[in-house]
Amino acid sequence: MRLVFAGTPEPAVPTLQALIDSPRHEVVAVVTRPDAPAGRGRHVVRSPVGALADEHGIEVLMPQRVKEPEFLERLTEIAPDCCPVVAYGALLPQVALDIPVHGWVNLHFSLLPAWRGAAPVQAAIRAGDEITGASTFRIVKELDAGPVFGVLTEPIRPHDTAGVLLDRLAVAGADLMVSTLDGIEDGTIRAVEQQEADGVSYASKITVEDAHVDLTQPAIAVDRLVRAVTPDPGAWAQFRGERLKLGPVTVAAAEALPPGEVKVERKRVLVGTATQPVRLGDVQAPGKKKMAATDWARGARVEQGERLS
């Protein structure tokens, strides 16, 4: 099939590469978010998907809005059979959805109808789900509500961060997308409407404020939140009036501490929660590099009774 691939960030790259490598499909163009400033120098850079397309000499389309007439005209000229999508980052109007013969097929990193929305991997970890996965579905106007072609499952491991889990799902999901498109081309796969009676849940985009760690919660909830927002946007708490970034923590076997109270030991730094303490891993103070919590505590000369909030 002739394909126009839509995607933007790094998790979309494995699927684009798999489709480029597929002997059965031809990626004739990609749609990605416009080049944007990044890094300390704020230099304008291509998205990861756009950069990979450049490497393979594939046309890159970067509409500010998908409903722009120029973009819709170009997509109509290309006349793709199907438009696979992974984390593109913009809503698609019906006029665009109607152009490809086989529609737009999205790879979503959850077992739909669970965790529709922008941050399904983060939501699954924070909720304490034991199993997650990925789904391919035909995009319709309603958010992530289209009929599903295929699914895969993936266990959530005890120490998985959102970044680690998303990396695994991105690789496995690439194979799922290729097999889905193979089936569409062969006519051997059928999209099945989502069983909303099984429970619909939504995963909103994670903000910096969402990543503020509430140490009055139980230790297990603190652990899940920190892992859910690692690496982006990154967990944090206040210490001496400034934000201290927190890497993944572990629930510690230790005597209870008041929520937020910091206890510095020779080989570990503990922080109280509503239940047992958590042990800090790496932390990052303002203007400093990431470091082990024990090194930070020595340098900051943390005093008995001081707290994170």
Question: Describe it for me?
Answer:
There is one protein chain. The chain has eight helices and 19 strands. Helix 1 runs parallel beside helix 6. The protein has helices at 13-21, 48-55, 69-78, 94-97, 120-126, 162-186, 219-228, 293-300; strands at residues 2-7, 26-31, 36-38, 43-45, 59-61, 83-86, 104-108, 116-117, 131-138, 148-155, 202-203, 235-239, 242-246, 250-251, 262-264, 269-271, 278-279, 282-284, 291-292. The strands form five sheets. It has a seven-stranded mixed sheet, sandwiched between helices. The model has no long low-confidence stretch (mean pLDDT 96). The chain has two domains: 2-203, 3-Layer(aba) Sandwich (Rossmann fold); 209-300, Formyl transferase, C-terminal domain (Methionyl-tRNA Fmet Formyltransferase, Chain A, domain 2, Roll). With 309 residues, it is α/β, with parallel strands linked by helices. Helices cover 26% and strands 24% of the residues. A hairpin with a 2-residue loop joins strand 12 (235-239) and strand 13.
